[in-house]
Recover the amino acids of this structure.
């Protein structure tokens, strides 16, 4: 291990790396409860998604350990899974398309393949540099708001209303009350630097739900999709369910090239900044950047992310990406890929605890979604609202269009279109990089199809 991971050179040892790996795992294991919950809304089998999430996290994190020797863990990304379910699959299902999640998995596969090709060159980093900072921060903040409203809707905190569009749900339901208590618990645990604060928030909310069920406050009613919170602990239930392998739909893609291109581009765009931003953030916290502020072994790290995404699509889960929660392990002393190995192995072991994770209800994951939304929304403070009007308005449109139209793709689309149009109108077209022109024409074409009623079919 010393020879491969260069522990002494990085000022660490096996014990420190193991502790750091466990810390990272505890900080991000909530995804095993949240991801099946979100993707089940897309019509996928939650047990199969659980298996796919754990297995892809295991392999993706090992890729990072051995390709780049970084203490960074990978798993199905928050925001990307929401886009998968709510921006792609649900609209398709409403349009009458059967099993739209197969089309979304196909888009994830194609995205991963494109990222492999881009990662072999410096083009991926160039793409990041060519997109205006305000748009990057606005997209991140918008995704935070989108994840938040998804979480609040799942607990009945926010409900639909014919008169006001949205309204406050019933404050007396156990789902509402416990979700709000769970969020406060996470905030308190974070304040006191408790490892795995998000996971503990989910588990404590779930336990309170079980107590509510046993005391008769929480009523089980499968007809209303209110299920028992007590997991089945039979021996057979601990055997992982086989994932849905290679469930791709290339036939639909061939008939709907424009719609599919927009889906892939949106996946690409969100994942692009999520991955690079996370890697730089984690490396910066761990003092792993070089003297010029660049990320050594960046190509290996980006390839790890790309291969993880391809593998995740094959197993049946949304885009696999680097997790910012890896900073928890770095803060605990993790400096090498050995930290990632420990985290990956723990994800593999968690496969055999699926009854516990799958019994966790949507309202118990609401606190996690809202807290992650809070973290992503903080990127607003990095935006410059006193700069060029195109930067300001473009970033703002990205923020508001995601939650208000319930679509991450719409936020990216209107943010970029607004930015390019304002640059042209204010006679600053020379500031528009080629990648922004490509995005503009692609999204303009998509708007045209929507205007003429050409939707999913």
């Amino acid at each position: 291990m010393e020879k491969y991971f260069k522990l002494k050179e990085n000022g660490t040892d096996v014990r420190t790396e193991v502790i750091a790996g466990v810390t990272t795992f505890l900080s991000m294991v909530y995804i095993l409860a949240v991801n099946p919950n979100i993707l089940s809304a897309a019509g996928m089998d939650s047990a199969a998604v659980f298996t796919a999430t754990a297995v892809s996290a295991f392999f993706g994190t090992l890729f990072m350990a051995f390709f780049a020797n970084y203490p960074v863990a990978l798993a199905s990304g928050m925001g990307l899974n929401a886009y998968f379910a709510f921006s792609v699959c649900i609209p398709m299902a409403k349009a009458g398309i059967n099993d739209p999640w197969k089309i979304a998995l196909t888009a994830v596969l194609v995205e991963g393949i494109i990222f492999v090709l881009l990662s072999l060159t410096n083009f991926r980093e160039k793409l990041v540099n060519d997109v205006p900072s305000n748009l990057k921060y606005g997209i991140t903040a918008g995704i935070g708001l989108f994840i938040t409203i998804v979480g609040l809707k799942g607990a009945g905190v926010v409900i639909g209303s014919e008169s006001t569009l949205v309204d406050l749900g019933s404050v007396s339901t156990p789902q509402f009350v416990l979700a709000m208590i769970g969020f406060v618990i996470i905030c308190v645990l974070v304040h006191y630097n408790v490892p795995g604060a998000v996971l503990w928030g989910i588990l404590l909310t779930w336990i309170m739900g079980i107590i509510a069920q046993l005391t008769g406050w929480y009523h089980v009613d499968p007809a209303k999709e209110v299920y028992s919170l007590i997991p089945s602990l039979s021996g057979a239930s601990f055997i992982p369910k086989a994932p849905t392998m290679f469930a791709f739909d290339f036939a639909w893609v061939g008939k709907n090239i424009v719609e599919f291109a927009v889906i892939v581009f949106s996946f690409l765009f969100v994942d692009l900044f999520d991955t690079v931003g996370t890697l730089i953030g984690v490396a910066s916290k761990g003092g792993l950047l070089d003297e010029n502020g660049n990320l050594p072994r960046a190509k290996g790290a980006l390839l790890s992310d790309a291969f993880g995404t391809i593998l995740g699509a094959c197993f049946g889960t949304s885009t696999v990406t680097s997790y910012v929660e890896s900073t928890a392990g770095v803060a605990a002393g993790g400096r090498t890929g050995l930290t990632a190995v420990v985290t990956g192995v723990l994800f593999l072991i968690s496969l055999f605890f699926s009854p516990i994770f799958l019994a966790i209800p949507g309202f118990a994951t609401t606190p996690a979604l809202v807290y992650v939304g809070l973290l992503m929304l903080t990127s607003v403070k990095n935006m410059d609202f006193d700069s060029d009007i195109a930067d300001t308005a473009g970033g703002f449109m990205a923020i508001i269009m995601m939650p208000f139209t319930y679509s991450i793709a719409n936020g990216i689309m209107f943010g970029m279109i607004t930015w390019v149009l304002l640059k042209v109108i204010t006679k600053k077209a020379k500031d528009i990089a080629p990648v922004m022109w490509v995005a503009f024409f692609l999204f303009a074409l998509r708007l045209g199809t929507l205007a003429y009623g050409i939707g999913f079919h």
The chain has 20 helices and four strands. The chain has a mean pLDDT of 88. The two ends are 53 Å apart (CA to CA). Residues 12 and 335 are 7 Å apart (CA to CA).
